[in-house]
Design a protein that fits this description.
three-stranded antiparallel β-sheet, alpha+beta
Amino acid sequence: MPYTIYPLRKNYATSFKSLYKPARDAMTTMTQLESRGNRPLQMSFDEHLRALVFFYLEEHTSAQHLLQVLEEDEFARSEIAPKGGIKKSSFSEATNTRGFDQFMFVFEEVQKQASHILPDCHPKLGNLVAIDGSFIDATLSMYWADYRKGTKKAKAHIGFDLNRGVPRKIFLPMVRVPNGPL
């Protein structure tokens, strides 16, 4: 399915940049992601996060659709994609081996920024945190996601700050496989 830029999207770049700015600011003190093997990373953490934000902001239908846009759209090619472009196999590798620690660092830093900006709607009630435990469908390669026998799902717990309307904490309990990578 070919991707077309809608003529009414004049704030296309502005929307992306304003949405991405808090994450970009959070990454200034983050430990850089390094390759886990002999091959250098084909996408930096920053490039990968930009692609994911763009993916959700533009409501792409698949990774294939996103990669097509990163190749064909002028804004996506210059502002989102790595300088030399990205191939499907390299993007898949980046998605499968991306640094969990870096994602959590960015989440925690953006959450701190938001909690200082957003008003406390009900200060008399104290800290109101809702806890949600959800199952996330897993793929076959997510061997650590054996939450229950015979089921491939990952369990996620999220603490949501009800006074400010933002997530406060994310906990992803992972079962480690003996002698296996996480």
